[in-house]
Amino acid sequence: MADQPLLAQLHFGREDAERDVTEGLLLRGGFLPNAAYRAALGGRKMLIIGRKGSGKSAICMRLMADAGHGGRKVLVTPDEAAGEEIRRFELQGLPGDSAKALIWRYLFAVHAARHVVAHARDAHGKRPDSVKALARFLKQNGEGPDGGGRLVEWLAQGARGLQGSLSLEAFGVKANLDLAQSPSEGARAARQLEIVERGVERALADLGCDGVVHPPLLLMVDQLEQVWSAEPDSNSMVVGLLLAAKHAAGLYGRSVRFLLFLRADIYDSLSFGEGDKFHGDELRITWTEQALRELALARARASLGPGLTEDQLWKELFPQTVGGEEITAYLFGRCLPRPRDAIQFLNVCVEKAWLEQERDRITEADVEQAGRQFSQWKLQDLTSEYLVAHPFLRNLFPLFQNSGYVVTRAGLTRRFEAAVGTLHHDFPAYANVLTLSGVIDVLYGVGFLGVRRGNNVVYAGDDGLPVQPHETEFQVHPCFRAALGATRAFDLRRYETQLVETRIVSGNFSPAASGTSSLNRDDRLLMQLARSCHSIVAQVGRAVALTRDVRDEITVQVNRILHEVSCIPPGAAASMGVDVDDHLLSTARYFATLAAELRASGLEETTGIGDVVGRVEEEERRLRRSVGGSGNSAGY
Q1: Contacts of 545 (CB under 8 A, 6+ apart)
Q2: Is it the case that residue 534 has pLDDT exceeding 70?
Q3: Close Cβ partners of 192 (under 8 Å, ≥ 6 residues apart)
Q4: What is the pTM of this model?
Q5: Which of 90, 104, 338, 355 has the smallest number of Cβ neighbours within 10 A?
Q6: CA of residue 2 relative to chain centroid, distance
């Protein structure tokens, strides 16, 4: 390894936290402590929310391995069998959310009981009667003190006990007496569970453990998305978890801490009466471009050594710029703001350079090629991420293919009207969502579209405000543009050059003619064309409220015309075979097309687009008049 170039050893880690932990990178310095991690470690927040790939499981894995929390840790990650056990758990007399809250509360109570029994033995060297009662309860109900067995088996055991009768003799309660006093199955289950929870609470009090002298039990639940669907039973499973954790946290105080890691789309889809009580427990994971840059450096150092500097990474191993854009702005601006995307993009850049080309540094071409592959991945991944909530998402992408990435509400209306019949036919259950405003809301919510606000383009996560009815201009996120073929700002027809430059390079013109100082009619017409172009560019520059990308796209096309004119030396047009009259008329026709495209764009008049269109049309007319026979520079 030592004689290999640095690029051969560079690796930014795995895309999933579990493998990162297994292979050691996450623990060798490849983890970047952020606000969510600090809040989780310090017990300030109970609910960590983030999009897929935002680092929830990385925080969870780091906490499991972190010596900073010296207490016992339990991680609950339901598989499909365990999820099905919870989803189908019902109790007569209780609504679904409340019933599922009881099965979660039972699971938490059993884990807390096991912890108390082990903790009394290991840290206190004594077993008060209340602790002995917990030990007997666990044994009598088949809940081993070591927590052995699969989660689904624990849940099945608890479900049978709650739906039937738990053995509560350890707490001095006879099951038949409890049954006789309960009016319903739900009431009986709740009564049994309260007795168990009080037993745990009493044992904690007798031991005097309040999470200060001895570290608390840390109980974490992660990867619920593996067992979630948009069905009511799945929503009840998650709501029940939230209710149970809130209840247990209040009951056990500082002796037991709870951390729930939930995907943002799941959490945001929930609707329940207690939802407003969780805001103080929430923390949403957010990543800035600077934070992703720091994460990339930390992970690069984890593979190459702590001595790696920023300059070495971003100026020696990577190209300093790509397409004139600074490398980190290019990379992190083209991925959604989450670690998984950044890791994937960076790794594929390395693979393109080293594995495929055996280069010792990454080139601009490598980054651009990696970007195209990465964009395809992300478009596919977006479909998979929201397959449950928005199964129609893939069918919306054709609305944005091979067009400009700046999209107006008016332009999108035309495209959507052409597709709405097919969408409603293929997804009849989602007809109420598949409206123009509904589609915009969905595409904004998943991060596919950003909305223009002032001079900025805002994407979901940057601003909590949803798309407003008066907002009319949107942009496809840079992450998806290459995959869609939407790499230009606006769907404007390119100005096609007449290959004047090729003729000049080949020497196909007369040096004598190019050296003349007198201006003939052709020269004056070409000067008129140049003045028209400068006039349009100046008007575009004054339209400061117009999206910069759109301004740039118009300017690029007009500058192509200017560049072509600049390649014709004075007096050389005829010898180069350029018909100047035809050249100006062709340009005038292009200006007419450009003006029509801008008028049809749907861009708001307040952006200044109307003034730009007016200037383009005026210059089109000026060029036509100039060619109409006048030898003077008409109109100036």
Answers
A1: 455, 606, 607, 608
A2: yes
A3: 161, 162, 165, 166, 168, 178
A4: 0.81
A5: 355
A6: 37
